[in-house]
Amino acid sequence: MRSKQITWKSSAAISTLTILVGSSSCANLFFHFRNASVATISVATIQPLRSVQGNLTWVYALAISPDGRLLASGSYDKKIKIWDLPSNTLLYTLEGHGNAVVSLAISPDSKLLASGSWDNRIKLWNLETGQLLRTLDGHTDDVEAVAISPNGLYRYPR
């Protein structure tokens, strides 16, 4: 599965739309709302499939693992929530950023999460244990985008 994230500035309640395209002809839309909830909507039926709540404030970032099993949400409360989508269960709450978490990326093997924050830092997390692996300092401004290469060897920013 692959995902595409589209972000726009709007006065509407939805701040980001993530489209998860699977092997079937059906796509799922992941919305994260300013009321701190995340919803999944089936494009085929336009019916809500599920909603998860756990963040205390606005959700700014979403990432979906390539295998479609994990959903990560980052929010203004400085926390990252990791959800198991098949069971709709919260697996981990990752803490460590000093400001809002605004960007997330999951590695192709679904084992690593990169998070970027308004605290000018990138953090790398082990998705199998929820443990912080490394903090990358040195940015002089907000880290609003992170990415991991398709082969998993390179991360942006490095």
From TrEMBL:
Signal peptide: none annotated. Keywords: Repeat, WD repeat. The keyword Repeat applies. Pfam families: WD40 (PF00400). WD repeats lie at residues 52-93, 94-135. The keyword Glycosyltransferase does not apply. InterPro entries: WD40/YVTN_repeat-like_dom_sf, WD40_PAC1, WD40_repeat_CS, WD40_repeat_dom_sf, WD40_rpt. SMART domains: WD40 (SM00320). This is Uncharacterized protein. The lineage of its organism: Bacteria, Bacillati, Cyanobacteriota, Cyanophyceae, Nostocales.
